[in-house]
Design brief:
2 copies of one chain form a homodimer. Chain A contains 7 helices and 3 strands. Chain A is mainly alpha-helical and 173 residues long. Chain A has a 3-stranded antiparallel beta sheet. In chain A, helix 3 crosses helix 4 and helix 5 packs antiparallel against helix 6. Chain A binds a DNA duplex (30 and 30 nucleotides) through helix 4.
DNA sequence: TCTTACTTTCAGATACTTCTGAAAGTTCGT
DNA sequence: ACGAACTTTCAGAAGTATCTGAAAGTAAGA
């Protein structure tokens, strides 16, 4: 076979496209998700121009989203000796990927929510009986729940893959 | 005191505004989050016009987002006997709220992802050694991880609040 | 059947997000 | 110090999501 455009590439194409679409439901932008999918399945690290061509996106777009992915910790920059340009490669270990995403989502979703709840609870701590008290209690309950969730998340995050699996097996078994 | 605009209302106002802003990070639209916050902290059930006035939103907007919240299962419609109009009230139990959201997010985020992964794995199951095989293995790994996560989520979801707490205490302790 | 009290819909307006491409910036080798 | 190779920035264009308000729809009671 002359130019073996391997047929796994078809599946890969599909994966990239679909993953991008899913990104939207996830609150992640499409291009970012596509770049991530592309790099996750890349046998070798890639540089900006390759990524632009492969996904038909502009330089600015590629650059912005690559930086953002580096910010999330989902991809890293690699410099090859003797080469000027920057290459990128994705973390491929599923557990590590999960931890990275979990940590970031906690930071973005839980931390600010906790702040609001604490503030509202504090502000109403002297309410007597009635609706004011009910409101205070509700804020407290929410606050405790979120704090509890964060603790669970931290515990799981500090586990090695193996021990997390073991723990989960016990839960499911 | 003549017209006791209770001061917990100030905290409530804050809660509604902030919760709305947070909704965005969460992939939920601002109005929907605000209506939810309003109803969560309402001493009594409310009807559309009250909600419109309180949040300064249009009838169309209120109606759409109320329906959507009912769809999520986060609020429910209540009919009062002898009254024509529909009232709404939110689920206030934190654990139930959590379960509802977890279930919905699973359905929206995990289920479609799993479909994509299965498809890609299937399509490449006959790849020999090399990049094709690597791709296949990666899809498989992701698939198994997601399936595993879903199982954990299902298990937790089927728990009563008390037993979930107990289980979590064991994990943290 | 008609009126009244409500709910739903949807076309167009507004606001927000993302993308492009060209220009400016940076860094390295000579 | 200069030019080549690369990266970053950003103003405006394009694309999406959300909201409004008025009109249409529905249902109950007289």
């Amino acid at each position: 076979m002359q130019h073996e455009t391997a047929n796994w590439e078809a599946a890969r194409e599909e994966f990239i496209a679909q993953w991008g679409a899913l990104g939207s439901n996830w609150g992640i932008n499409r291009t970012m998700a596509q770049i991530h999918a592309l790099l996750m399945t890349a046998p070798e690290s890639m540089y900006t121009d390759e990524i632009m061509q492969r996904l038909h996106i502009s330089r600015g777009n590629a650059n912005t989203n690559l930086r953002e992915l580096v910010g999330w910790g989902l991809i890293r920059l690699v410099v090859k000796k003797g080469e000027r340009r920057e290459y990128f490669e994705a973390e491929k270990d599923v557990w590590k990927m999960f931890l990275t995403i979990a940590k970031e989502r906690k930071r973005r979703e839980l931390d600010p929510a906790l702040g609001v709840l604490k503030g509202c609870a504090e502000q109403t701590k002297n309410e007597g009986a009635g609706p004011g008290r009910d409101f205070h209690n509700q804020m407290k309950e929410l606050q405790e729940f979120v704090e509890f969730g964060m603790k669970v998340s931290d515990t799981v995050s500090s586990m090695k893959h193996a021990s997390a699996l073991q723990w989960a097996m016990r839960l499911l078994g």
